Amino acid sequence: MGARETDVPYEAARRRTFAVISHPDAGKSTLTEAIALHAKAISQAGAVHGKAGRRTVVSDWMRMEQARGISITSAVLRFSHRDTLINLVDTPGHADFSEDTYRVVSAVDSVVMLLDAAKGLEAQTLKLFDVCRSQGVPVITFVNKWDRPGRDALDLCDELATHTGLQPMPLTWPIGPAGEFHGLLDCRDGTMVRYQRTVGGATAAQEERLDPAVAAAQEGPAWSRACEEADLLDASGGGFDHELFLAAEASPVLFGAALLNHGVRHLLDFLVDFAPAPRPRVDVAGRPRRLDAPFSAFVFKVQTGMNPAHRDQIAFARVCSGVFERGMVVTNVATGKPFATKYVQQAFGQQRTTLDVAYPGDVIGLVNAAALRVGDTLFAGVPAVRFPRLPRFAPAHFAVARPTDVGRAKQFHRAIAQLHAEGVVQVMRSQRRGQGSAPVLAAVGPMQFEVVLHRMEWEFAVPVTLEHLPYTVVRRLADPSQRPLVDTGWRSEVLMRDDGTELAVFAGQVELAVLQRLHPHLKLDHLVGGVD
Ligand code: GDP
């Protein structure tokens, strides 16, 4: 064993790998900046995401992304806070493009769920809570924009408990209603934290700590109300319980205003003190892979064309065990082929740096790794290890794809297969449509179709047309012999995925209900949590 192998337990224990997930506009980019600012990854907010045209600064790798100003792909921001190494895995924040976000959940050890104080839980956030729960990923809730008028803090916690089943455990509580933000009650020691405003949130906010008696004298009713509300939650089981958090049964709640950097330090400190460090990942045989076993990792994202100067492909892999050293030869379990890792990078936005060593919890970017696919396991040494494939998510949008130039059918099928393998879109077949018919593309969000259109035209030179299908209700067909019942139904059909899953899709609830009335023995399963 080289010196570095013996470092693994220490290095793994001081890593925190997490993602910030939210509904668009809740403030994810702003919070990312604020976190990085506190952790001194950058000296001034705006360096990661420029204030003007923020999104284009973060990831301007794709023309479409620039044109629409949305962030489609993920990368990683790495920094240290109190001797802990933090990997913040960025997620696409667009409501319509969520399959990538779901996959990121599989690659992190905890998630910060960001809520807008005025909006609370939005549909997108709820779906993501489901995904986190179904994968057992602990969730920290950060209620943002408390400097703006918004909802009642207790109401928001109620909503969290009712809709997610997660017990809210406040760590900080706002003093003053949303829009009259006086500071925070630190629920752990009962003191008040007051902030000095900084110009435009460009530097970390100065904090002042006040004893409870001083806070009571200065803040009057706002202080006593905050204490009463926090006590109320505490009495109903909302006291902090580390085990419940790690078991993804309760969610610590913090309040703040990312734009002003208020409440952000508490979030970071919580991540360092209580968020889980990397834990052994279970392989397909159900055996946990020890952190100090030889190197292993799995690919959770493949991205093409990040560098506009020359179109390249980068595969992001999460290290699960051992030490990764640049240049080492690893094996891709899917192909059984060895694979040299000369070009490895850390990437966030435009800045890429070469990475030499990585430990469990780190994310490595393998450049020009054309053979790598989402879900692939990489390993070194013997014996081989294979991690379970990443969950695929229940699609909600369907379209038939056809090449505009029928003479390019072969290139069309090859390109579609590649997009499927990369996880850009799911490709399905329908018996009803017949053998050799055009494939049906299925997506979690319609943005995925736009990526397909764009890449087919610009990257593969096979422009396609999409015929959108009207399906909105999706079930799993439990008994394949019942396929004809659905295929002959009114505005419904069965779509088959390459892994054998058969999805029964319906234009709406009415069509589903009619078919069920006609065939009461038809067995259809719900897709729990949007994940199959
Ligand atoms: P994202 O889409 O989730 O990444 O959201 P952004 O970080 O781009 O923020 C959306 C908008 O909300 C921007 O105009 C931000 O300036 C604003 N914003 C973010 N955090 C706060 C906050 O704490 N207070 C206020 N008042 N505005 C905020």
TrEMBL record:
Pfam families: EF-G_D2 (PF22042), GTP_EFTU (PF00009), RF3_C (PF16658). This is Peptide chain release factor 3. Residues 13-279 form the Tr-type G domain. It is found in: Cytoplasm. Keywords: Cytoplasm, GTP-binding, Nucleotide-binding, Protein biosynthesis. Belongs to the TRAFAC class translation factor GTPase superfamily. Classic translation factor GTPase family. PrfC subfamily. It comes from the Bacteria.
